[in-house]
């Protein structure tokens, strides 16, 4: 079931609204111009840019808006991979300082809003269809808060506060909270990661780079065999993608071990978020990794791990978990906010 986000303005909207929406990450920036006519949504223009080839988001925006007869948008909203304070943002994995006022000055768009990328992801739920979601744990949802967990290049988390009628998304930086070992294996892992990072956060295990860290732990600490062909593939391609592909194909024991531990940690993190948010409305898994590796999450031990906690197993068991399969959800959320939020 798709939650009603923020308000029902989209269902009540009159006339036409043309907005610019973005999804700004450390690797790429996606931009699209949307036309909203009631509940009908049309993409008028779209493009993708490599972040590191530009000095700022403003440079990308002026490039995108130049050179054709696409109608000028009346408002702009973008998700940003980093914390947003007073409509300004410093990106976590890119040396960009984004200011809404500078975007207005450069583009002429007066209504500019920056959202944390996971907050934008949460707003994007309003634009999804039921077929965009895959259920991992059905639970028995009851009206209440919800949350999003998104392992990708980093680890994003957001909450959705239930006000009795609508869900109201809010950003968090929970991915940077301390990782807590549960098993003896986790304790060994924590000691290994501590020598590398000093402070070990959940992002160090539940993310793309985290997958590679888990792999190196099994190779260097647990002395599992690294096949020559696998080492060669990781030299030529993204290591985490190679590891997850090998686990999906069951072609390397070390990769299966790394991804099983990754999935276990995602499940544990979902439990933590579920308890902290009292997320009886459900947990949504997003980001770049879960949709591409969903068969690993559909194994029984994911649900078994999720409902295993100290004293609230019955409560956690009620909370559904669904995977967001639509990779454009943050962009759709930014478009929704540009048109109806703020």
Compute the number of structural domains: 2
Query: Which blocks of ≥5 consecutive residues have pLDDT under 50?
Result: none
Can you give the mean pLDDT? 93
How much is the radius of gyration in Å?
21 Å
Major beta sheet summary:
6 strands, mixed
- In the CATH scheme, what's the topology name of the largest domain? Hexokinase, domain 1
Give an overview in words:
This protein is an alpha/beta fold and 342 residues long. The protein contains 13 helices and 14 strands. The protein has two domains: 9-125 and 328-340, Nucleotidyltransferase, domain 5; 133-325, Hexokinase, domain 1 (3-Layer(aba) Sandwich). It is globular and about 60 Å long. Strand 1 and strand 2 (28-37) form a beta hairpin.
Summarize the structure.
The protein has helices at residues 9-12, 57-65, 100-107, 117-124, 184-197, 208-220, 228-236, 239-249, 253-277, 294-297, 300-306, 313-318, 329-340, and strands spanning 16-24, 28-37, 40-50, 75-80, 84-85, 88-90, 97-99, 111-116, 133-137, 146-151, 155-162, 167-171, 282-285, 321-324.
């Amino acid at each position: 079931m798709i939650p009603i986000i923020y308000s029902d303005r989209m269902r009540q909207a009159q006339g036409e609204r043309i907005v610019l929406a973005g999804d700004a990450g450390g690797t790429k920036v996606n931009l699209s111009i949307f036309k909203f006519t009631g509940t009908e949504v049309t993409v008028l223009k779209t493009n993708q840019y490599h972040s590191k080839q530009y000095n700022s988001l403003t440079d990308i925006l002026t490039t995108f808006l130049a050179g054709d007869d696409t109608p000028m948008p009346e408002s702009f909203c973008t998700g940003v991979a980093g914390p947003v304070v007073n409509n300004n943002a410093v990106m976590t994995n890119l040396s960009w300082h984004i200011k809404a006022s500078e975007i207005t000055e450069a583009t002429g768009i007066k209504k500019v809003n920056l959202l944390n990328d996971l907050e934008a992801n949460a707003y994007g739920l309003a634009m999804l269809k039921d077929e965009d979601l895959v259920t991992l744990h059905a639970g028995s949802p009851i009206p209440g808060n919800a949350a999003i967990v998104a392992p990708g290049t980093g680890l994003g988390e957001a909450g959705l506060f239930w006000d009795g009628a609508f869900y109201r998304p809010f950003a968090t930086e929970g991915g940077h909270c301390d990782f807590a070992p549960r098993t003896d294996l986790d304790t060994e892992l924590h000691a290994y990661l501590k020598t590398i990072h000093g402070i070990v956060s959940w992002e160090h295990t539940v993310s793309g780079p985290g997958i590679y860290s888990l792999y190196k732990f099994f190779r260097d600490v647990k002395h599992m065999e690294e096949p020559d062909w696998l080492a060669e593939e990781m030299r030529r391609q993204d290591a985490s993608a190679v590891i997850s592909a090998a686990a999906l194909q069951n072609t390397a024991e070390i990769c299966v071990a790394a991804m099983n531990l990754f999935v276990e940690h995602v499940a544990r993190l979902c439990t933590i978020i579920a308890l902290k948010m009292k997320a009886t409305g459900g947990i949504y898994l997003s980001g770049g990794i879960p949709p591409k590796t969903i068969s690993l999450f559909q194994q029984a031990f994911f649900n078994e791990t999720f409902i295993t906690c100290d004293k609230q197993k019955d409560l956690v068991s009620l909370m559904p978990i669904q995977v967001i399969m639509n990779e454009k959800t943050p962009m759709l959320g930014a478009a929704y906010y540009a048109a109806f939020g703020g």
